[in-house]
Amino acid sequence: MKKSLLFVIDSLDCAGAEKSLVTLLSLLDYSKFSVDMMLFAHGKLLEELLPKEVNILKPLVYTKFSELSMKNSLIFSLKSLSFRMLFSRLKYSVAIRRRKYSNPQKSRIFWQSVSNVIEINPKLYDVAISYAQGIPSFYVIDKIHAKKKVAWVNVSCQLRDKERLYHKQYYDQFDKVVAVSDSTKDTFIQCFPEYSEKTKVIYDINNPEFINRMSCLGKSYDDHYDGLRILTIGRLARQKGYDIALQTCKMLKEHGVEFRWYALGKGPLKEEIEQYIRENDLSRHFILLGVESNPYPYIKQSDLYVQTSKFEGFGLAIAEARMLNVPVVTTRFDAVYNQMIDGINGLVVDMNADAVYVGILKIINDVELRESIIGNLKVEKKGNVEEINNVYQLIG
């Protein structure tokens, strides 16, 4: 008899954790497992890449309600003579507008506001997996029946005071916690030392065959530019260090370097980034591409991949660039040495624009170094599909 699994994640938008989950699911043996997936937002780009065996559950009633305009949500409430969802939605909206909150704070406030109107899934699963922090974890504990519950931790982020205490009451109830890198585990254990025994590392899974196949499909750059192409992939958010990227871009332009720097991603800093681009006359040099479900043709046709992150759980886009033999310049975030060897398969530099600028120039101008890095990339071990065996041990 097949084991029943449930994976819970916010959405399948185009980001590192989401791509890692899709890769994991593509490697599962569906003769042994039946898989349901719960999403809190539907219709995102990576859903089309899911294996056909994965059953995406119907949206929660509140999820559908929250997508209505406020006017239509009021009409819905009047017609149904039930105002609980409306009051919960208003409670969250009012609370979240008071000041700027971190993502863990937003997750807590959301769950405290609306969990009472989110239905329980009546099915009993063998294993339920929260594949992200925050809301998916709260949902798995409060709304799911399962013989075993597992929490994935894919961001190196410290929780303090109120947030730590709130998250602790949920992590207390998980049977196992999985961190996606050694440094992510270290950060998590610093915050929650009481979970050291039940926390293990399973790296984000990368499948080089899949990535190479995808790199030959779909669209890529269409601006007919034949100069140096630099690529960055990541949500337009503080964590990804776009302030460093933009300052570096400005320095490259001011020093007469001929290049174009492209960014794949979306997020809350879009307007701020666009304003910086306008104010510093970088429209020909720093180009926002939005998001693509298949970024691999862009990576493959880039001359250099640059990651300016301030923290990462693993750094999946770096791994993808390495698999496509594209030289990498990256900042020295906590988890970077899980995959980077400075001067061998790329350059690891300090977390500031001056250092990133020097690193980029080094790759551009030192032909011997660049060719050496590319040569090393071509022969280094590609991917880690064997990590699926650790997943089997976890859910077995």
Descriptive account of the structure:
With 396 residues, the chain is of the alpha/beta class. It folds into two domains: 3-208 and 387-395, Glycogen Phosphorylase B (Rossmann fold), CATH 3.40.50.2000; 219-379, Rossmann fold (3-Layer(aba) Sandwich). The protein contains 16 helices and 13 strands. The protein has helices at residues 16-27, 61-66, 70-80, 84-96, 103-114, 135-143, 161-171, 182-191, 208-214, 242-254, 270-279, 296-300, 316-323, 353-365, 367-379, 388-395, and strands at 3-9, 33-39, 55-56, 121-130, 144-153, 176-179, 199-201, 228-233, 259-264, 286-290, 304-307, 328-331, 347-349. Helix 4 (84-96) packs antiparallel against helix 5 (103-114). The chain is globular and about 65 Å long. The relative contact order is 0.11. The model has no long low-confidence stretch (mean pLDDT 93).
| Beta-strand segment tally | 13
Q: Report the end-to-end length measured between terminal Cα atoms.
A: 13 Å
Proper CATH architecture of the largest domain: 3-Layer(aba) Sandwich
Query: How much helix, percentage-wise, in residues?
Result: 40-55%
Give the topology, please:
Blueprint: E1 3-9, H1 16-27, E2 33-39, E3 55-56, H2 61-66, H3 70-80, H4 84-96, H5 103-114, E4 121-130, H6 135-143, E5 144-153, H7 161-171, E6 176-179, H8 182-191, E7 199-201, H9 208-214, E8 228-233, H10 242-254, E9 259-264, H11 270-279, E10 286-290, H12 296-300, E11 304-307, H13 316-323, E12 328-331, E13 347-349, H14 353-365, H15 367-379, H16 388-395
Parallel strand pairs: 1-2, 1-4, 2-3, 4-5, 5-6, 6-7, 8-9, 8-11, 9-10, 11-12, 12-13
